[in-house]
Write a structure and sequence with these properties.
The complex is a heterodimer. Chain A is globular, with a radius of gyration of 23 Å. In chain A, 66% of the residues lie in helices and 0% in strands. The longest helix of chain A is centred in the first third of the chain and has 36 residues. By secondary structure, chain A is an all-alpha fold. By secondary structure, chain B is mostly helical. Chain B contains eight helices and two strands, in the order E-E-H-H-H-H-H-H-H-H. A two-stranded antiparallel ribbon of chain B has the order 1-2. Chain B is globular and about 70 Å long. The termini of chain B are far apart.
């Protein structure tokens, strides 16, 4: 995506030629590009699995795949989308943007940066290869609960080690982000002057460093329980399968915010630009993000209301969870207030950001419903949960990533994307994604369980509607890939500012920016 | 290999990360194949370990050479410090998962199995009375005895605490630029580290052969060996790192105001020390 840096005095600082540029690079932009392209690839691989799932659920009865393979598809779809698509996309954006936003030449630890990316293709080769192993790919759900997951065939150790590798990659990436933000800011760029995308990533990185090792511990215990005779999750030995769920969700709930806080940051960059007003309530945005991150550590058992917990536990986790609505509400109101009486225009990034605000809020509301323990007894493990987390992850995280891609693509490539096609992509995606996921609320409320290849005849209509929406959403994303690649190849030249007076140091650089973003620190007033 | 950009230091490309990825992947694929019963699993795994070691040798070697040729400015030094600090924090969280498992079993799941929570007790394991240590109502691994806190574990506590003092003496010597005492105190620290590991190994042998305390001894054996085992692994890594720091000290690599590598390893050593105190209190003593 970057071109050689002819405008630098010494051009030996430009990228190496050929494949070695990408294999050995220590450049934050090259690594960001690798992350983003990897994420796009995984988005389509995980998406293909989703298409197979929706095809199977198009009608009641078993059509295309056997139930075991269906379970593998749901499990792998989740693992690929979470660890392969959404997280690497955010790390890619962090790599591209944080040095440019804080006025640095590169990330603080560039070689480690290369390693955190280049572990991922290997980890996902391991994970995806399990489809071809005896016993099939993991089929116990992405939450890998014992004892079910211990029945996995030859794939089991590969699953565990793939998760270990992803964890190593995430931890190194997160350490790099923290160190870059703390140590590489240009003079005058105080913490409370940092763009919100940088703030949200700083907090996300803390969450990653705190919880990825816990996941590593949890899967290590699974491994030793299966192969080395330990009894962490076996009641006969004094252990408890529920203990795994506690450890897993101690990782899993912060993980949820790892996938949404950077999205908050992206949207907080975009809305002020197109409302032509500064962000409303900057410092409250920072404090709200920090509060959400803190709360994420004390709400994990709301994923386990039905598994059996003392009443005091149910109540504590219910109230703590509902508390998250407060800082999240602060954010939503701040975005709305930013737009209030602004001179708004609706280019593609703004459309996606607006779609994010509206539809993420829908996902937030269904999350509030799920937080109410007695109500969750009804909804647990139904399609209502599926609808909820797809609203926050697809119309939340993925829409924000796409908004960010459209917003910064002209800066990265020096070329404008095709606005007409971008708008088509937005409207096709937004309509189809609601056709896809909204009916799943009704299916869940009516009692359809998740992770099941066949269903009772009463669920037929909504499933068919949902599948039609799914196919349309999947096809719409091909348009996104086309727009991205055609923008990389050419198009109308973008100005340095790209948009109408956007705020931030990245817009003071040329489009595309020089290979080493800021070789001398800019002055921040 | 690298050059400065207007006061900043940006390293050039490196093939070591990719070598590391190949090594790690070979390692885990070999281990996974071994667990699935393949004959070539273990040899593949050792090949992976060898590649990882070559990578570490090469990568650290590059960094040491660059450091010795004064390519790093203060900002790089600070980045390394932050990086090491947060790496140690991630290690703390890794141990937290296993301590969490220990506390969950001791405070919640074992008492529940013993009847505090009526339903699971009555349905599955009637007659089991909760106690700690336990290998569970199924008496997994058969009857066993535990390692007492005031034998080898207490001696080991003294050894590690002493090694924390000796490494600090080494640091003081380094700050005064006294290379002789620096190397001497580092040697003492490394020796104490390996003495600890030796005593742990002896204790493991004793537990396995005389006490019938094994990895299979229910949740007690699981938490005991996983916690002490991962700790022992970290002590081994720390002792090797200290030994390398000692060799570098002999070569005269550090100056009183530039010795990040020494401090990073010392931090790491204090970290394994603190983890051990947690182990001594909650695994051996209480």
């Amino acid at each position: 995506m970057t071109t050689a840096t002819a405008h630098e005095a010494h051009d030996d600082h430009g990228p190496a030629r050929g494949l070695s540029r990408w294999l050995f690079t220590t450049n934050h932009k090259d690594i960001g590009t690798l992350y983003l392209l990897f994420s796009l690839l995984m988005f389509f691989i995980g998406g293909a699995m989703a298409m197979a799932i929706r095809a199977e659920l198009f009608e009641p009865g078993l059509q295309f795949v056997n139930p075991m393979f269906f379970n593998s598809l749901t499990t792998m779809h989740a693992l690929v989308m979470i660890f392969g698509a959404v997280m690497p996309a955010f790390v890619g954006l962090a790599n591209w943007l944080i040095p440019m936003m804080i006025g640095a030449p590169d990330m603080a630890l560039p070689r480690m940066n290369n390693w955190s990316f280049w572990i991922l293709p290997f980890a996902f080769t391991l994970l995806l290869s399990t489809f071809f192993m005896e016993g099939g790919a993991p089929a116990g759900g992405w939450t890998i609960y014992p004892p079910l997951v211990l029945q996995t065939g030859d794939a089991f150790p590969f699953l565990i080690f793939a998760i270990h590798l992803m964890g190593i990659s995430s931890i190194m990436g997160a350490i790099n982000v923290v160190v870059t933000i703390l140590n590489m800011r240009a003079p005058g760029m105080t913490m409370m002057k940092m763009p919100l995308f940088v703030w949200t990533w700083l907090i996300t990185a803390y969450l990653l460093i705190a919880v990825m090792p816990v996941l590593a511990g949890a899967v290590t215990m699974l491994l030793t329980d299966k192969y080395f005779g330990t009894s962490f999750f076996t009641a006969a030995g004094g252990g408890d399968p529920v203990m795994f769920q506690h450890i897993f969700w101690f990782f899993g709930h912060p993980e949820v915010y790892i996938m949404i806080l950077p999205a908050f940051g992206i949207v907080s960059q975009i809305i002020p630009t197109f409302a032509r007003k500064p962000l409303f309530g900057y410092s409250s945005m920072v404090y709200a993000t920090a509060s959400i991150a803190f709360l994420s550590f004390i709400v994990w058992a709301h994923h386990m209301f039905t598994v059996g917990m003392p009443l005091a536990g149910e109540l504590f986790f219910m109230y703590a969870t509902m508390l998250i609505a407060v800082p999240t509400g602060v954010k939503v109101f701040n975005w709305v207030s930013t737009m209030w009486r602004g001179s708004m225009t609706f280019e593609t990034p703004m459309l996606f950001a607006l779609g994010f605000v509206v539809m993420f809020t829908i996902g937030g509301f269904s999350g509030l419903m799920l937080a109410i323990a007695p109500v969750d007894f009804q909804y647990h493990d139904t399609y209502f949960v599926v609808a909820h987390f797809h609203y926050v992850l697809v119309t939340g995280a993925v829409f924000a990533i796409m908004a960010g891609a459209y917003y910064w693509l002209p800066k990265w490539t020096g070329n404008m994307y095709n606005e007409r096609l971008g708008k088509w992509h937005f409207w096709l995606s937004t309509i189809s994604v609601n056709v896809l996921f909204f009916p799943q609320h009704f299916l869940g409320l009516a009692g359809m369980p998740r992770r099941i290849p066949d269903y009772s005849i009463q669920f037929a209509e909504f499933n068919m509607i949902s599948s039609i929406g799914g196919f349309a959403f999947g096809l719409s994303q091909l348009l996104f890939a086309y727009i991205v690649f055609s923008t990389i190849r050419g198009g109308a030249k973008a100005t340095d500012k790209v948009w109408d007076n956007p705020e931030g140091l990245e817009w003071t650089l040329s489009s595309p920016p020089p290979y080493h973003s800021f070789t001398t620190a800019p002055e921040v007033k | 290999m690298s050059e400065a950009h207007g006061g900043y230091y940006v390293p050039h490309g490196s093939h070591w990360p990719l070598v590391g990825s190949v090594g790690l992947t070979t390692l885990v694929v070999g281990f996974a194949m071994h667990l699935n019963g393949s004959d070539i699993g273990l040899s593949t795994m050792f090949a992976g370990i060898a590649i990882v070691l070559i990578m570490m040798f090469g990568w650290f070697g590059t960094v040491i050479r660059e450091s010795e040729s004064h390519m790093y400015n203060e900002q790089v030094d600070k980045s390394f410090r932050w990086g090491m600090g947060w790496f140690i924090f991630s290690e703390v969280m890794f141990f937290a998962a296993f301590f969490g498992a220990l506390f969950y079993a001791r405070i919640l799941s074992v008492p529940w199995l013993g009847g505090e929570d009526a339903s699971t007790h009555a349905l599955l394991w009637e007659g089991y009375s909760a106690a700690w240590p336990t290998n569970g109502p199924g008496a997994m691994g058969g009857a066993f005895e535990t390692v007492g806190a005031w034998g080898i574990p207490a001696i080991n506590t003294l050894i590690l605490l002493t090694s924390g003092v000796t490494v600090t003496f080494a640091h003081w010597a380094l700050k005064k630029n006294n290379r002789g005492p620096l190397v001497g105190w580092l040697f003492a620290t490394v020796a104490l580290g390996f003495l600890f590991i030796g005593l742990q190994a002896y204790e493991y042998g004793h537990a396995y052969s005389d006490l019938n305390l094994t990895l299979e001894s229910g949740v007690y054996g699981s938490t005991f060996y996983m916690l002490t085992g991962f700790h022992g692994m970290h002590v081994t890594i720390g002792a090797i790192m200290l030994a390398i720091i000692m060799l570098r000290s002999i070569k005269g690599h550090f100056t009183p105001d530039r010795h990040f590598a020494f401090e990073a390893v010392a931090w790491y050593w204090h970290f394994v020390d603190v983890v051990w105190l947690g182990l001594f209190i909650f695994v051996y003593w209480l």
